[in-house]
Amino acid sequence: MNRGIMEWLFYMAVGYLMGSLLFSYFLPKYFKNIDVEKESMDHNPGTANVMKHAGLPLGFLCLLLDMGKGYLPVFWAGKVLPPVSLWFAGVMAAPVLGHAFPFWRNRSGGKAIAVSFGVLFGILRYSVSVWVLASLYIVLVLIPRIRPNERKSVYTFLLFGGISAAALFLGHMPGICIGNILIAAIVICRNWEGACFREKSRERLERAEK
């Protein structure tokens, strides 16, 4: 295996390992002895649940750390590796994959929204993808009929992946476009599970009330 491939794999491995650090799971347990997975209805180790069950300051800290673990490995890689390469897609997807499916857990990780934004901020000097994703989120948040929130995330990343596929077809940076598509696929997978879980929980609650 030549040195170039080893370098790509190194940054992918670093990104995946950093992504696997579930700050929203560890920090509430360490500082407040709170298991946000057990306390929350959706059992998700995410920043929203930390804010709800462990307080806003700790929640904002977890948000920054989750974004940082997506930002740093991609930013570092972008300084030494060409983002036009198809290998760069793997570098972008690695932190998101680590957060959604960490190696050290039998169960899945988080929904990977914050870490995805962190990754996209890491490539901001090459791509406006982060502003595209943020704009899509803002538009869909204004549509109240889309419930639960996980479904909004699914639709948002479906649109984001579609826009990235169109950009790839038009010849824009293939590494980044494919990276966006991979990120969208991972987030859709995790949030689709969450949406199904919430809908089943709501149906059980409605049956119990009857």
Notes on the protein architecture:
- The chain has 210 residues and is mainly alpha-helical.
- Helix content is 75%, strand content 0%.
- The protein has helices at 3-19, 23-32, 36-39, 47-54, 56-80, 87-100, 113-122, 129-141, 149-169, 174-209.
- The chain is globular and about 45 Å long.
- The mean pLDDT is 87.
The ordered string of helix (H) and strand (E) elements is HHHHHHHHHH
Number of helices: 10
As a percent range, the share of helical residues equals over 70%
Q: Whole-number radius of gyration?
A: 18 Å
- The structural class is mainly alpha
Instruction: Report low-confidence residues grouped into runs of 5 or more.
Output: none
What is the average of the pLDDT values?
87
Strand content: under 5%
Task: Categorize the overall geometry.
Answer: globular
The biggest sheet, with number of strands, parallel, antiparallel or mixed sense and barrel status, is: none
| N-to-C CA distance | 64 Å
Q: Work out the number of β strands.
A: 0
Q: Secondary-structure map with pairings?
A:
Elements: H1 3-19, H2 23-32, H3 36-39, H4 47-54, H5 56-80, H6 87-100, H7 113-122, H8 129-141, H9 149-169, H10 174-209
List its salient traits.
210 residues, mainly alpha, 10 helices, 75% helix, globular
